[in-house]
Amino acid sequence: MPHKQPPRKQSITIGRGARKRDEDSGTEVGEGADEWAQSKATVRPPDQLELTDAELKEEFTRILTANNPHAPQNIVRYSFKEGTYKFIGVVNQLAVHFSQVGNLIPKDSDEGRRQHYRDELAAGSQESTKVVISETEILEEEEEPKESEAEAETEAGSQIDMPAAEAAEKVTEEELMTPKQPKERKLTNQFNFSERASQTLNNPLRDRECQMEPPPRTNFSATANQWEIYDAYVEELEKQEKTKEKEKAKTPVAKKMGKMAMRKMTSMESQSDDITKVTQAAKIVERMVNQNTYDDVAQDFKYYEDAADEYRDQEGTLLPLWKFQNDKAKRLAVTALCWNPKYNDLFAVGHGSYDFMKQSRGMLLLYSMKNPSFPEYIFSSESGIMCLDMHVDHPYLVVVGHYDGNVAIYNLKKPHSQPSFRSSPKSGKHTDPVWQVRWQKDDMDNNLNFFSVSSDGRIVSWTLLKSELVHTDVIKLKVEGGTTGGLDGLQLHTVGCGTAFDFHKEIDYMFLVGTEEGKIYKCSKSYSSKFLDTYDAHNMAVDAVSWNPYHTKVFMSCSSDWTVKIWDHTIKTPMFIYDLNSAVGDVAWAPYSSTVFAAVTTNGKENVIRDTNSLSHCLQLQCARLLMCFPRKLMC
User: Protein biosynthesis as a keyword (predicted)?
Assistant: First the structure.
C-alpha cells in the first residue's frame, strides 16, 4: 500500500498564509479584518455624557459586606463580673429570606446508610434468583444423559428406593430455587457500638458552651542584673531556713493539729466560695429588713420621754430598747463591752466566766445597731475573755485578755477566727487572769503597743512586730510592808494583785493601778522600781479607776466596799465619798460634763450622780435588765 502523508503540514501552511501579524497592535488578525474595522462605526446615544480623560480614568470602588442592615446595633446585657451594663460587639448578621422543610436525608447519616443498604439487599436478591435459575437449567441438561444410563440400572434394582431418591431431589431443588437472604448488618460506630459481653445503653453525648470575657493582660518588662539574682537567691534561702527552724520547734502533736486545722480551713473555704459572692448583698438586704422590723424601737430611742419622771423624787426609769443575743454564746457571761471609736453603730462584746470552777471557752462578738438579730463578726477562743479594747487609729484591731493569762489581737479585716497575734509562755504571758487591756500611742519605731494588768502583779507593755508579740515588764506591784522572812534568811515580798488601770489624758507616762488589796498606785512608765505615790483608797478590791476627761488632777475609783471616791492625785485623802449600799462594779465620767458620772452596782441599779458645790444628788434608776439607755436620761 502506498504511504499516505498526513494533511497536517498543509493545514499549517494554509493557516500561516491566511494570517498575518499586525505590527502596531501585535495581535494576529485574519484576512479581511481591516475592511471590517473600517466599515464599523460607533453609535452613541444622544443623552450620553461627554467625560474628560481624567474623569474616565477615575475609579469608583464599592465594597460589598455581609452585614445585615436591619440587625440591631445597640444590644445591652448585664455583666456580672463588672457589675454594669455593657454593649455587645458581636451581633448575628444572618437574614433568612426563604426556608422550606424538605424530606432529603444526608447520605452520611444513619438513616441514609440504612436505606442505601436495603436497596443493595433488594438488588442483590434479584440477581441471586437469576443466577440460581440459570444454574438449575445447566444441571438439568447435564443430568439428562446420566438418567438414561441410570434407568437400565434402576430397573434391575428394587422399587423401594424410589420414594427416598425423589424426596432428596425435591429438597435440593427447593434449596436451589429459594435464595438465602443475608441478615441486615448493623452499622456500628462510636455512638451505638457495644460488645457481646455488655449490652448497656450508652448515654448520648451533650455539648455545653459558655461565653466569657477574656482575662485582662498586662505587659511587663524588666532587666535583671547579677547582683539582683544573687539577692533573690539569698532571700529564698533565708526563708527556707526560717521555715525549717519553725518546723523543728514544733512538736509532732502540734504539727498534726496544724495539718488538721489547715484541712478544715481549706474545706470551709471551698464550701463558702459560692456564698461569699453574695455576702455583701445579703448583708445589705438583711439590714434593710431589720430596719423595718425595729422601726418602733428606733422611734422610741429618738422620741421616748416618760412623763411620770416629773412626779418621782430623784428616781427614774430606763426603757430597754434593743436586745442582742446569740445561740453560740449561751451559758456565757458578758465580761467586757467596748464601742468602736470610728463606727458609732459598732460595739464589741466579750464572753467568758468569772467562776473558777466553770472555765470552758470564750467568744468575741461584734454587733451593729443596724442589725440587732445577728452579730457582724464572731470569734471563738479556748479560754474566757475578761477584757477588750479597740484601737483608736486602727478600729479593725481588737485586743483581748483571757482568763488563762494570754493576750490576743484579732484583725477584723481577716475573716478567719484565729487571732493575728497571741502570747505564749515563751513570750511572757501572764500567769493569772488579765483584767484590763488598753491601747497606747505608737512607740519611737512606730510600732503598735498596748498595756495589760493581771492578778500576778505585773504591768506589761506589749509591742507588735511583724510576726510576734514582744513583752516588757513595766512594773511589778509589791505590797508595802508585806516582806516576810523565809528559810535561810530569805525575804519574800507579797505581790499585789492588779485589777484595773487608767492612763492620764495629758501626761503620757503617768497611770493609776488599782489592786485587790484596796490600794491605788500612781506609777510611771519610766520608773519600774518605785511608785510615784500610794493611796489607801478602799477596804476591798478596787474594781475601776478613771481620770476625769476635763480636770487633769481629778480621778475616780470604785470598789466592792460599796463606795465611790473622787480624788485629787496631789492629795492622799478623797475629796468626795459616795456610799451606794451595794458593791460597785464600774464607774464612768459623762462625756459632756466634768461633774456628772454614772456607777453600776451589783443589785441591778445604775446611779447617775451630779456634783455641784460639794453637794451630791443621787438618782437611783431601777433596771432589772440593763441593755441600752438614753443619753438624755443620764443628764440630771
Answer: no
- Give me 459's grid cell: 504591768
What is residue 357's three-state secondary structure? helix
Summarised one tens digit per residue, pLDDT across range 345-357 is 899 999 998 888 8
Query: Rounded to an integer, what distance in angstroms lies between the CA atom of residue 502 and that of residue 451?
Result: 10
Alpha helices in 250-382 (DSSP H): 252-271, 273-276, 279-293, 295-303
Question: Which set of grid coordinates corresponds to residue 192?
Answer: 451505638
| Helix count and strand count (H, E) for the chain | 10, 31
Task: Please give the grid coordinates belonging to residue 208.
Answer: 455545653
Q: What is the pLDDT of residues 66-91, one digit of tens each?
A: 888 888 888 898 999 898 999 888 88
pLDDT band of residue 627 (cuts 50, 70, 90) is very low
Q: Cell 457500638, residue?
A: 193
pLDDT of residue 19: 42
Residue appearing with cell numbers 455593657: 86
Over its C-alpha atoms, the chain yields an Rg (Å, rounded) of 53
The C-alpha cell at 189 is 460506630
**Helix (H) or strand (E) segment spanning residue 231:** helix 226-249
Comparing CA positions, the residue from 414, 316, 199 lying closest to residue 618 is 316
Alpha-carbon distance of 545 to 584, in angstroms, equals 12
Q: What is each CA distance from 444 to 82, 105, 274, 455, 462, in whole angstroms?
A: 44, 88, 45, 29, 14
Q: How far apart are CA 201 and CA 219, in angstroms?
A: 52
For residue 626, the model assigns a pLDDT of 32
Residues 76 and 85: beta-carbon distance below 8 Å: yes
* Dist. CA 423–CA 454, nearest whole Å: 14
- Buried-exposed string 140-161: b where 16+ CB fall within 10 A, e elsewhere: eeeeeeeeeeeeeeeeeeeeee
Q: What distance in Å separates the CA atoms of residue 210 and residue 428, rounded to the nearest whole number?
A: 58
Structural contact between residues 121 and 184, judged by C-beta atoms closer than 8 angstroms: yes
